[in-house]
Design a protein that fits this description.
With 404 residues, the chain is an alpha+beta fold. Helices cover 30% and strands 25% of the residues. 45% of the residues are buried. The structure holds zinc ion.
């Protein structure tokens, strides 16, 4: 393709166009149209797909590819945003994309429409300066990252696998920097599972406990056992895993009734020393060992009869070993910002947890300080720097023929 035929996109203007689409999950509000239009002008082939599943809203997604040969460098992200929250707390219109004192305000500026605009701007500059790359560049963009994440990246990856559509490496544009652009690259994420314990007892009069079966002492013992010792002490790339009990519910307001049921809810953020399966086995063993009351249950009582445990996994822990890919990003960050970014696995989950099954994945984006808050904003100059970083990553990747 001739270098003169492609437009060069301004990351600030493109971010503003995306922010002005109020794409609060599951709404798209035209955001993917804005993106697809820009990508089409650059020569990308855009595939739009709407996924559905009973009990969840339909979601629009986009996979766009420039070029047909390998290697295929993929940028991934989401155009959906969280709600504005306390609308009265905003001092600007959350969807007006106003610039004040060098800051661009709006829901989704940091998380993560700014990074998506920087993806596109970086590709457009690369095309203008060097022409089409020796390989392919793709964008995998979902509208379901902040929601249930059922009709989003996971299904786009399935759709790609069915068609033999391959990506070789993936950079996710989540806001990874805690304070300053250049602070942090994420090379992995902790896993997350949640558990609901329900202890079954028998309701009765508080003065006749032998006629009732109080689930509260059982639950207290069980929860204490879960908290008694740390899950691990962390490792080179991960902080220690953490089990957080977030609720204990009996719902009994009456002092003369023994309640019939007691419940607890917990979440575990875990590192690569565990899997969801190994943790569930550990939890069941702890609960089985503590649910019984030896004084009244008898030696051959079945622990399983006294409680139920329901667990849901929302992602396994993963690590992309530091190596050529993290170095490529790190070098680009350093060249543009002068900072040496920390390689981290901290924070919550992201769609990288699905992509890691397909290819090496790392994350680098804007400063996340105001994400999900009122007055979410980014520094305008950071958008320019991020565009330069992404462009440099692309240039470096294709210069080595994608061998990372
Ligand atoms: Zn995000």
């Amino acid at each position: 393709m001739s270098t003169s035929t492609v437009p060069v996109f301004d990351p600030v203007a493109l971010t503003q166009s995306l922010i002005r689409c109020p794409s609060v999950t599951p709404a798209d509000a035209g955001a993917l149209d804005v993106l697809a239009q820009a990508l089409t002008a650059l020569g990308f082939v855009c595939q739009r797909m709407t996924f559905s599943e009973e009990g969840t809203p339909d979601i629009d997604n986009l996979y766009a590819r420039l070029g047909t040969q390998g290697p295929n460098f993929c940028f991934a992200g989401h155009t959906d945003v969280v709600p504005v929250g306390n609308a009265g707390g905003w001092t600007v219109d959350p969807f007006a994309a106003e610039i004040r004192d060098g800051k661009l305000y709006g829901r989704g500026t940091a998380d993560m429409k700014g990074a998506i605009a920087a993806f596109v701007a970086a590709v457009s500059r690369l095309m203008a300066e060097q022409g089409a790359p020796d390989g392919s560049i793709s964008l995998l963009i979902t509208g379901d990252e902040e929601g249930p994440s059922i009709n989003g990246t996971r299904k786009v990856l399935d759709w790609m696998a069915e068609r033999g559509e391959n990506i070789d490496v993936c950079l996710v544009g989540e806001p990874t920097n805690p304070r300053v652009l250049g602070d942090m690259i994420k090379i992995g994420r902790r896993g997350s599972i949640s558990g609901w314990i329900t202890v079954h007892g028998t309701q009765g009069h508080v003065a006749y406990p032998h006629l009732a079966n109080n689930p509260v002492p059982r639950l207290v013992r069980m929860v204490s056992a879960l908290l008694a010792e740390p899950l691990d002490h962390g490792n080179d790339f991960f902080q220690p895993s953490n089990l957080e009990v977030v609720s204990i519910d009996v719902g009994n307001p009456t002092t003369n009734i023994i309640p019939g049921e007691a419940r607890a809810l917990f979440n575990i953020r875990f590192n690569t020393q565990h899997t969801a399966t190994s943790l569930e086995a550990w939890i069941r063993a702890k609960l089985d060992a503590t649910v019984l009351d030896p004084a009244r249950d008898g030696a051959d009582a079945d622990p399983a009869a006294f409680y139920t445990l329901k667990m849901t996994e929302s992602g396994e822990a993963f690590l992309t070993q530091p190596g050529p890919f993290s170095r490529l990003i790190s070098d680009a960050v350093q060249a543009v910002t002068g900072m040496t970014p920390e390689l981290s696995t901290s924070g919550g989950t992201s769609d990288a947890r699905f992509i890691k099954n397909v290819c090496p994945v790392a994350e680098f984006g804007l400063v996340g300080q105001t994400m999900h808050k009122v007055n979410e904003h980014i520094a305008v100059e950071d958008l320019e720097k991020l565009t330069q970083i992404y462009q440099q990553v692309l240039t470096g990747y294709f210069a080595i023929g994608g061998r990372i």
